[in-house]
Amino acid sequence: MSSLALPAPRPRAWLTDVPVLAVAVVWGASYLAAKGVTTPSTVLAVLVLRFGIVLPVLAGTGLRALRALNAAQWRGAGLLGLILSGIFLLETYGVVHTSATNAGLIISLTMIFTPLAESALTRTRPSRTFLAAAGLSVLGVVLLTQGGGFTTPSAGDLLMLLAALARTVHVLAMARMRGVRGAEALPLTTVQLGTAVVVFALLCAAPGTGAAPWDAAAAFRPADWAGLLFLSVCCTLFAFFVQMWAVRRTSPSRVSLLLGTEPLWAAAVGITLGGEKLGVPGVVGAVLVLAGTAWGRRSAR
């Protein structure tokens, strides 16, 4: 995508770029995978299984760092975990009720919402260029959700919009929460995911909230297990460790730009593998969302 122009790479920089780009690809594919393995009655069960599988690996890898966390860092990470659980609930319920293409593109609005929210908190006026990019993205979402003609956006579209807002809250909380400053990424992520799994398990135990994790697992076919393992191993475990590895070998801005291609891959996977159709308004909307978020990211920097 031409608007995501990257700086000239250093020698062998592509050796770092390829794994990071692979993370963007698997994240883009995660919406279709989640849609394939999840039903409205198994959302909580799938979330427990997805993160319950990788949590022991993360905890075992970073056991020493977990022990080094102080009480304030544990509390801060736990609070961030509560926000994170809300994000995954909104995203997973959202993708069940909309297309994978819409889900991946709408969630990319986080890149617009976050600088806007930060400007509001710091009482600084965003640039006109950024406001224009934000307006372009919003117009794109409106067209995207009307791919087959102008109708009321689906419940899934609205849930994904709320998920984008929740992601914004999570990003700002991580940046501003004093309790987690100085904590390493691995234990911080482990506590957050552990908190989220506890939330999902408690909700699963409540009556009328859907299938239990063991019941959902017993009903899984081989394709369902493949989708779940893809979400757990590739979209969670692989993605986290690649990010930790990459930021030590290249700039955070470069990692961010590469990961910012996620909505492009979500659309590509949804259309080519999922057989989803956007219609003319949807195609125009998808292009505007991609252009607006890329333009907004550059102007925000």
UniProtKB/TrEMBL annotation:
Annotated Gene Ontology cellular component terms: plasma membrane
Pfam families hit by this protein: EamA (PF00892)
Listed transmembrane segments: 12-34, 40-60, 72-90, 96-117, 129-149, 155-173, 185-208, 228-247, 254-272, 278-296
Keywords, comma-separated and alphabetical: Cell membrane, Membrane, Transmembrane, Transmembrane helix
UniProt domain EamA: residue ranges: 20-145, 155-294
Compartments, as annotated in UniProt: Cell membrane
Family: Belongs to the EamA transporter family.
Protein name, entry field: DMT family transporter
